[in-house]
Amino acid sequence: MVVQRVTQAKVEVGGLVVGSIGQGLCVFLGVGAGDTEADAGYLAQKLVGLRIFADEAGRFDRSIRDAKGEVLVVSQFTLYGDVRHGRRPSFSEAAPPAQARELYERFVEEVRAQGVPVQTGEFGAHMTVSLVNDGPVTILAESVPTKSS
Length: 149
Fold this sequence. Notes:
The protein is an alpha/beta fold. The chain has helices spanning about 35-50, 95-115, and strands at about 1-15, 15-20, 25-30, 55, 60, 70-75, 120, 130-140. Helix content is about 20%, strand content about 35%.
């Protein structure tokens, strides 16, 4: 996931606003072919716990809950675009649409379950995303691969 701290963000599909937030986090979420429900849960907990909002001293010490902010989650398979070879990205590492939708929805549910207001884009649609990055603050977070013994 790519997380941007924003003062506002919105997603439009076909000229209609389908999701909009004020102060909070805009999350671009990519789902990889090997991702699981555990990965979705891990990233949701990581997102809600990220301390990237300033406290009274100006230090990054407040989470999205502490800041009473909102989250806008946008599905984005292009995060898995591999450009190491040639000039056209390969998306072979992205999850198939059915699996990606399931884990995307799981992620959204997990964030909501932690008491954070969530808006979304429209999975699989061509979307126009507008945001005002605050800081700018942009964080890249990945789920931790499970190690087998």
